[in-house]
Amino acid sequence: MIDPNCQPGNRVEHGHLPSRRFVMALVKKGSRLITVDGVTYRWRVRGRPTYDQGLCQRPLAVAVEQVDCKGRVLLVGMPQDHPSNWLGGPAVPVLPSMVAAIVRKALAEGREPTQPGTAFDMTAPVD
Predict the structure, then answer these.
(1) Tens digits of per-residue pLDDT, 7-26?
(2) Who has the most CB within 10 Å: 41, 54, 92, 95?
(3) pLDDT (tens digit per residue) in 40-88
(4) Any bridge partners for residue 41, and if so which?
(5) What does the DSSP assignment read for 32-51?
(6) CA–CA separation, 81 and 60 (whole Å)
(7) Contacts of 25 (CB under 8 A, 6+ apart)
(8) For residue 83, which of 48, 32, 42 has the smallest C-alpha distance?
């Protein structure tokens, strides 16, 4: 199902992607689907840590995008270390319930996942 709020130039129809000018799509491999309030999103945690994440100097990051409309990607800094860090920092899994709460918070803060543009950055709340 195509989101009626999706801009015509951003729709994914018949397997064709829109113009690459503003699109930054997630890799499907290793991603998971989640439905939040009737809208399906794809989310992913980077498989290997970046150098700073490996040293526990930068937190784990989660990327989220709406599946049927390639608009802005949501990049979320999580309050935990990357599970594959090199220093043995504690690994706390990212749960689908956490991702759903993050998506709802981002939408409440004005994120418009159907609009083209640069990534929407936010930090996950610490529980």
Answers:
(1) 544 444 333 333 333 345 77
(2) 41
(3) 999 999 888 999 999 988 888 999 999 988 788 999 999 899 888 999 8
(4) 34, 66
(5) EEEEETTEEEEEEE-SS--H
(6) 5
(7) 17, 65, 70, 73
(8) 48
Q: Are 24 and 73 in contact (CB under 8 A)?
A: yes
Nearest 10 degrees: Cα torsion 63, 66, 69, 75: -30
- Under DSSP, the state recorded for 11 is B
Strands 74-77 and 61-66, how do they pair? antiparallel
Q: How far apart are the first and last CA of the chain?
A: 34
CA atoms of 79 and 65, how far apart (whole Å): 20
Length of the chain (residues): 127
